[in-house]
Amino acid sequence: MEEQELKQQICQICHNMWQLGWVAANDGNVTAKLEDGNFLATPTGISKSFITPEKLLKINSRGEVLEGLPGYRPSSELKMHLRCYAEREDIGAVVHAHPPTATGFAVAHLAMDRYTMIESVLTLGSVPVTPYGTPSTYEVPEAIAPYLQDHDALLLENHGALTIGADVLTAYYRMETLELWAKIELNAHLLGGEKEISRENIDRLCSMRAGYGITGRHPGFKRYRDDV
Ligand code: 13P
């Protein structure tokens, strides 16, 4: 994809996240990998509603700024993003936001590990809560690293959510799926409690991932992984 097109896609996702109420004030950040191995990153300290293509920064794998408007610095969560790319060759984009229902699970220290909804079983599997880390420090990449090999969506304890994907849209759609599933889980809880899908049917769903062209990792079902 052309760099300019990728920039526009990142901006569209930032705007969507703000409109959906997943980010307040300056919350959230997005990065994407370029074909030359460098990255595009959202700037720090700016509402995702105001992001425009020229405000994005180009950085290298050490987080050094290669291109950017004067006065703009990359997201303070860059260490977290770069760790995702370092751990996973198949990752082309990382999205971080605070969608309120999924973040509610992160604040309650509740993993989303029930296999209750067909779409989330297919695309996400279980979503763990990763240990607490102070934002912008190396505590966050250290906390998420052990989970990255088997998960494409993480809940960050008392913080928010992180999704990764082969491209920007895939990472963003995983955040959409995570938040919708979190809402449904909460509704099911209010309605008397969720009921899990049988193991046999979970297995059938996981075996269908390749047919649907679903990329990435799926916890607990390594035999169905399409990238190993
Ligand atoms: P940045 O503005 O530095 O990207 O930080 C926002 C955020 O959500 C921190 O977790």
How would you explain this protein's 3D organization?
By secondary structure, the protein is α+β, with helices and mostly antiparallel strands. The protein has one domain (3-207): L-fuculose-1-phosphate Aldolase, CATH 3.40.225. It is 36% helix and 14% strand. It contains 7 helices and 8 strands, in the order αββββαβααβαββαα. It has helices spanning 3-19, 78-87, 100-107, 118-123, 139-148, 168-190, 199-207, and strands at residues 29-33, 39-41, 57-59, 65-67, 93-97, 129-130, 153-156, 160-165. The protein has an 8-stranded mixed beta sheet, sandwiched between helices. A hairpin with a 3-residue loop joins strand 7 and strand 8 (160-165). Helix 2 packs parallel to helix 5 (139-148). The chain is globular and about 55 Å long. 1,3-dihydroxyacetonephosphate is lined by residues 26-29, 44-45, 75-77, 135.
